[in-house]
Amino acid sequence: MKTGHPYPLGNAPELADMLAFLKRIGLTAAVGIVPADAVLPAMSVRGGAVVYDPARPGRVGDLLHEAGHLAVTDPALRDTLSQVGDDPAEEMAAIAWSYAAAMAIGVPIGTLFHPGYKGGPDYLIAAFAGGSFIGLPMLQYWRMAARDSEDGPRFPAMRTWLRPPCATA
Cα–Cα distances in Å, from 87 out to 79, 81, 82? Predict the structure, then answer.
């Protein structure tokens, strides 16, 4: 099986580690029915959870990206989220968050930024490998990751995996 290749999500070797990680940090991923018109073929966000169908083909790396949307959502809205928003800042933050999560779990970057990911993974793989972390400023703004001027571990290490209430500079 090629890394990141679309095959039934239930067969993805990284799935168990991803699910354990999400549970540990307080996010919910649940098996369920994914509508045929969902943006991603095997998963969606519903009721503040990532819902996935393990029998449908999909890319397991997308599970982390969708979880990233939940993680960076205002916590007052997180449990009611039934679709991913289109806020550009949250989209970039979800990309950075999913990278940090992948590194924490040990998921290969090619599984996260897979062929077909947002028009092609090459730019993102090169940017993150080179230390240009798209979306990191939002994670820092929300106090989820340390700023360069602060003590503590550097990104992709996170201070907190979930956006805290009233998180501002």
Answer: 18, 14, 15
Classified as helix, coil or strand, 26 is coil
For 57, 115, 122, 124, the CA distances from 160, given in Å and listed in that order, are 31, 29, 28, 23
Distance separating alpha carbons of residues 133 and 135, to the nearest angstrom: 6
pLDDT digits (tens, 9 = 90+) for 120-134: 789 999 999 999 999
Separation of alpha carbons 108 and 98, rounded Å: 12
- What is the per-residue pLDDT across 148-162, written as a single tens digit (0 to 9) for each? 888 888 999 999 999
According to DSSP, the β-strands at 7-8 and 57-58 are antiparallel
pTM for this entry:
0.92
Residue for token pair 């994670």: 139
